[in-house]
Design brief:
316 residues
């Protein structure tokens, strides 16, 4: 099972009206519902989602039902990542990093020493990990026991991804893409999309990657980031998250309930019907058929047919 998780990691990659499974049914969201921002599944059945006001929920049945977990923090939580089935991390506002060693049932606060919001967390292996966010990059070499700043920048870093122990990439709010080839000790700018924020990064192998961002932008590289090409997505809304379940099949989600899908490696994209106008912030697929998306106002949807039909799930 651990091998399956590692393969998925390499590939992984406001007051709207909600429309339910039947398009004639109108669902009004609870004003207290959190906005869910990040998804992570440790196996096809068990997954976690985090969001605003310390929201943390867990599913053990492929997203059919969700249970609330107390993470011990009330700040907005932005990203969740597991290195294996027991050990995981959450990053959030005000320099928050939380760690679990029991499969997500209990969480402890880590000392980061920074007040900056942290948008994304990624671990290369059990010990080496990175957290990036508002003008800061943090690094740990002891499994989250201690975190030290690698660099401070003039922009908001949104997503970090490593393809090998040495090679990592970051996308940022100023449209830039950074690369490290020495385990994150040094970073260099390799691309900049002027005037367009980039929010998410996903690799389908060591050489091929996709980055999504504002104004419907999806960029693709096939040479480890030396050259990036803008793809025709058919949308102009911001795409907050992109996820590939295989080199050919991927999904991106964003503003106004937009979900787009490709089955040819990003050459063409098809708009799917999400039955919502809520902004969607994260997407995860365990295989080419089963997937989950999350977003504003407690929105959780799942599909069992590759996104041809999405079902709005009950809130926990």
């Amino acid at each position: 099972m651990k091998k399956i998780l590692l393969i998925l990691l390499i590939l992984g990659c406001l007051e709207p009206v909600l429309r339910g499974q039947n398009q004639d049914t109108i669902l009004m969201p609870s004003m207290a519902a959190p906005s869910y921002r990040s998804l992570f599944f440790t196996d096809p059945a068990k997954g976690f989602a985090v969001g605003t006001h310390g929201a943390l929920i867990q599913t053990n049945d492929r997203g059919s039902s969700w249970q609330m977990i107390n993470p011990g923090s009330q700040v907005d939580l932005h990203s969740v990542f597991f290195t294996d089935f027991n050990n995981g991390f959450i990053t959030g506002a005000r320099g928050t990093i939380l760690k679990t060693s029991d499969g997500g049932q209990t969480w402890t606060q880590q000392n980061t020493g920074v007040p900056n919001d942290l948008n994304s967390v990624y671990f290369i292996d059990t010990y080496n990990g990175f957290a990036v966010g508002e003008n800061v990059m943090l690094r740990t070499t002891d499994g989250g026991g201690s975190w030290l700043p690698v660099a401070f920048g003039p922009t908001n870093f949104y997503s970090v991804f490593f393809t090998t122990l040495d090679t990592g990439y970051i996308v940022a709010g100023d449209g830039s893409i950074l690369k490290s080839v020495n385990r994150g000790m040094n970073w260099s700018y390799i691309y900049r999309l002027s005037g367009n924020a980039l929010y998410s990064l996903c690799f389908t192998g060591h050489k091929t990657a996709f980055a999504s961002g504002a104004k419907g932008v999806i960029l693709k590289t096939t040479d480890e980031g030396r050259k990036w090409t803008a793809l025709n997505t058919g949308t102009t809304v911001s795409l907050f998250n992109i996820f590939f379940v295989s080199p050919a099949t991927g999904f991106a989600v964003g503003e106004d309930g937009v979900i787009i899908k490709t089955t040819d490696g990003g050459n063409s994209w098809i708009l799917q019907n999400s039955y919502t106008t809520n902004d969607l912030f994260s997407v995860w697929f365990s295989d080419e058929y089963f997937g989950v998306v999350i977003g504003n106002w407690g929105m959780i949807e799942r599909t069992d047919d590759g996104g041809d039909y999405w079902t709005i799930m009950n809130k926990p």
